[in-house]
Design goal:
The protein is an alpha+beta fold. The protein has two domains: 5-56; 61-129, no CATH class. It is built from five helices and four strands; from the N terminus they run αααβαβββα. The chain has helices spanning 5-18, 23-36, 43-56, 73-87, 119-129, and strands at 61-67, 92-98, 106-110, 113-116. The chain has a four-stranded mixed beta sheet. Strand 3 (106-110) and strand 4 (113-116) form a beta hairpin. Helix 1 (5-18) runs antiparallel to helix 2 (23-36) and helix 1 (5-18) packs across helix 3. The longest helix is centred in the middle third of the chain and has 15 residues, at 73-87.
């Protein structure tokens, strides 16, 4: 019987949270599962499932934030508070980078979605209306 990708992600997340020093071992087991079940092309889906399960089981939420310019401490604090309330996460691990092509604002990505508050995105939406 083949275990579902989501069940494997749930199990691996539980093991990583229970044994954080063994996380590399558990990720190797997950990679072996994907290869053995011929699901390597679904590795991105598996990683999203795993990230979701880590948060659901009390682990940190990983978020990537791209902004046009450096964000103030107040904006970062507000964004982290919003992500915590929206996802139920108690801890946020934020990676920040900058992309001037956004013109202003930011884009925040988590395993479960994206918040695009960039000026570039807003202008693209306006172009679609015209």
């Amino acid at each position: 019987m083949k275990a579902s990708r989501r069940l494997v992600a749930e199990t691996i997340a539980a093991r990583i949270l229970a044994e954080p020093k063994q996380s590399a071992k558990w990720m190797q087991i997950a990679a072996a599962y994907l290869l053995e079940t011929k699901q390597a092309d679904r590795s991105e889906l598996f990683l999203n499932d795993l990230a979701h399960e880590l948060v659901a089981q009390g682990g940190p939420l990983s978020a990537e934030v791209v902004s046009a310019r450096p964000l103030t401490a107040e904006v970062m604090s507000d964004l982290e508070s919003y992500l915590k309330s929206a996802t139920g996460a108690t801890e946020i691990d934020v990676q920040v980078s900058h992309d001037p092509s956004l013109l202003g604002g930011f884009v925040a990505r988590t395993p479960d979605g994206e918040i695009d508050k960039s000026v570039h995105h807003q202008l693209s939406q306006l172009r679609g209306i015209a």
